Amino acid sequence: MLPEIPLAWNHQLRIWRKLNRKKKAIIGGAEAPDPSDEYLLYQTLVGAWPYGTANGSPTPDFVVRISNYILKGMREAKQKTSWARHNEPYESAVGDFINSILQSTEFLETFLPFQRTTAHFGMLNGLSQTLIKLTVPGVPDAWLIPTTVTPWTSPFVRERCSD
Predict the structure, then answer these.
(1) 13: Cβ–Cβ under 8 A, 6 or more apart, which residues?
(2) Which of 23, 38, 41, 53 could make an SS bond with 100 (beta carbons 3.0 to 4.6 A apart)?
(3) Mind listing the domains of the chain with CATH numbers?
């Protein structure tokens, strides 16, 4: 969905980066998180935010899952930390940053409207793709059709992951 709205996405990124700049730590003379890790975080939050969150605040389990996902992504990127050589100060600073922004009313007030709009159109895209898949000639490849929108469902495990 984000590649379809590059101007709006870039605009939101600038707003969020400016808004959250003071929440960053300086580790080894550089900001934590760095721009690429911060980008991954915002992109992940837009795509993984729990559907129908009533009050806008994420659950503690969601915050842990996001933190673990970002940590995994940072280590696999091998830019500031890795699986072989953990950079504990950097990892800790990024974890603190994640907790800080997800508790920030100011951030959530700018994030949630964009996320909800993106999720709405993302669901419409998914429904459109499913409609096409089910109506074109041939046998549709629809071995797994979720009955509800549930985050953290793995099509490979074929069972719902714990929240």
Answers:
(1) 39, 42
(2) 23
(3) 2-160 (1.10.10.470)
Sequence letter at residue 24: K
Question: Is there a contact between 114 and 16 (Cβ–Cβ < 8 Å)?
Answer: no
Give the count of alpha carbons within 13 A of 101, CB side only: 26
Burial of 155 (0-12, 13-18, 19+ CB in 10 A): exposed
Residues comprising the chain, all counted: 163
Q: How far is CA 76 from CA 36, 70, 134, 150, in A?
A: 13, 10, 37, 26
Largest CA distance in the chain: 59
Summarize pLDDT for 40-81 with one digit per residue, the tens: 999 999 999 988 776 778 888 999 999 999 999 999 999 999
